[in-house]
Sequence to fold (879 residues):
Amino acid sequence: MPLDYRRFNGPEDSIPYKRFTKDFVKSYDELFKELLDDKGVRKDGRALSEARSMCMFFARADMVSQAKGSAYVELRKTKVVCSVFDPREIPHQNEFSELGQIFCEVKFAPFSCPRRRRPHAPDAEEKALSVALRKALEPSVCRHMFPNYQVDVFIYILENDGACLSAAINAAGLALADAAVPMYDIITSCTVAVIGDKMFVDPTEAEEYLATTNPDTPINHGLLTLSTLSELKQISDFIQIGSMDVVSVTNAMEVLEKECEKLVPLVQKVLVANVLKCFAQRKRLEEEANEREKALNSKMEEWKKLLNAG
Amino acid sequence: MAGLLLSPTEKVFIVHGVQDDHRSDGRTNIDYRPMELETNVVSHATGSSRLRLANTDILVGVKTEIDVPTPEKPDLGKIEFYVDCSANAAPQFEGRGGEQLAIGIAKLMQAAYHSSDAFDLKQLCIFEGKQCWKIYVDILILECGGNLCDAVSMAVKAALFNTKLPSVKAALMDGGNIDLQLSDDPYDAKSLDIGTAPLLVTLCKIGDKCVVDPSAEEESCSVISVVVGVTGNPSSYSTEENVSDSAKESKFTTIEMVGSGSVAPKTLKDAMNQGMVAAKLLDKALGEALLRERQETQVKTKKHSYGFLR
Amino acid sequence: MSSDFNVKRPGLELLSSQGLRLDGRRPNELRRIQCKLGVFTQPDGSAYIEQGNTKVLAAVYGPHQAAKSKSLQDSVVINCQYSMATFSTGERKKRPRGGRKSEAISMQLTQAITTAIKKELYPRSQIDVYLEVLQADGGAYSASVNAATLALIDAGIPMKAYLCSCTASIAWKDGKPEPLVDVSHVEESAGGSVLTVSSLPSINSVAWVDMSQRLHADYLSVVMKRAMQGCRDIEVILDKAVREHLGESWTMSDDAVAI
Fold:
């Protein structure tokens, strides 16, 4: 990877001081105990099966004025901005492609992660997220409508507190709709972290971390992300890592499907609100234009009178 | 892969055949093509294998190095996968043409080997926090005849089975540094414990059905495949009878969807179950073949190597 | 020659008192060459060659229409790519190709192969030759040339003659120069200059020559002679392999007719 010379970097073999703080030397069990209290309530007060709500206030379309379409999604501490740009001809391509392409780029803000500062250049995780996002979006967009063109989708993760891929997919779905890119269906996505028999819906970063570390005893653990086209009853992407048996995966899938279903009305609401807002804005602009024309006309009348008189 | 052109009629023939559980080379939907496997083919590598699955040809070389473990995981070694698509396989791979495909496969392998249930990195530890083995698994794709993922995962498991780490004879402590003395004796080495190493199974969705081991022609008829990584059964890879690990069930270590299409939830679940069954059988067959080869080598003391000369 | 003078020369220890080399060969003895044509089905031509521990795979695609930017009006364009597997050398390589060295070798291969092909037969066309070194133990370039020749023959591309390549180096025995043919990696790294010759032995012409270090002009002709002799020896082996391969496919088609 090319070195970042513009910023001040520590020596290559240095160890961050955080490594020696209390949080780091905790064992697996201690970390696990921290996630849930005795009543089975999570650290941030949610129940196990409770997702962070993506209500109207925290999700909206049309955020970035320069972009054709954009969206912002906030799930408590996970904050994602997405912007979509007009279709343009695919650069550096010799052959004609019958289907349009979606170009995705996911970028973490340098201050987005609690564990370490993000490097400037795109790293492996960002690339992996970009690929996963593209795979999830491809089936939902009518790509035959813009052959030989590509739509650019840029995701900027302001803050990452788990489930950033699902947040990115949800935001991208909203932004694509806002940009009036033809789509087959609303795309929604959700993540689940599995540790033993516990299923953490919409996990935070700490939960995700523990689900992907290796436990001391061989229990089911893993992270699953599912994105669906709910009206078409189709799964556009499904990713699992970790180590889980069949039953556990199947259960998690059912939970995920339900959660994705739950998100649809929320997304619809955001989109409707956005359209209403656009209408209102257009109406206001039209009214303003009418007023200006009226004022101008009356001025003209005045001048005409003056001319005729003079 | 290379200049594969199918007419619409040919595609219809393949799709209809699959619906009737009949494929153009006479297999049913759950059959694999015959394969050839040979280990210890590259003398410069610590472990190596070559797998030929019909037209798909994979060569894997394993190299080891001594490295410093990461501060977060002082007791774990490292494993890294690198895939190279040789231009021998297809002229499109010339230069950096095969990079996208290569990175995709490498990432799948990395995800499949992530969990300790799949591959225990603790066995690579030499001195906790100071020194560990780093295993480079270099995969060379020499010919593509469909179903790369399955072939790669099997060849990798065989190459790791063939890998022997030299034992440490002495360690000289000098201040904070450790100077290791490794044994020169090729027989004074320990094999890796790879019984649980995962195999990938690709399930290619053609029409409404899923097939295992798709040929290149079949792959071009499909828009989406599900790739599952399933852990192996250690008892298939050990001659000792007392390994009573039959309780260890197979688990999913990774599930991913490859391609631009989408699937119905039921198809996905069926595919996962089908993949699990296929992976178990494949793992058993691979274990038998590897043990047989090892035995033959021991009896004859010097194995006649075929390499590419057969 | 005084013994003092001899000590400074590289390649002194390359021959034992019996006149044998480190791996037990005589100075004019090639390493064991095993080869096979048609190892793959997808390329138009393919070949595999083992020269001792050096193992090379070659694949040929074409002739096909050349890209517009490269296309030549009156002859064929040879496009060559040389890459080494990451596990082919003692130390792991970071990249299989794209480095300066492999780019240079690709160029040299293109030059050597271009001389041997009847270029004028395929105007506005292109032939791709891809070489993959699986194991490098000295003379990887030579083995690549030989593998490319076999793959081109397998692809049925008309050539003027067999293009063979061989390396030679020099050692001293009893103070007298003794050229070594087909140099292995150990001998290469022991020092001394290595002469690589690609030639068309049957029409007695040289396609490409390279020398890695300085060599006294007096000895050049001896070393060159040995390398050319090596090329001639290799030609015999390649010719045998081609005939065997063709014989095999002929008998196979005979069987098919009989059935």
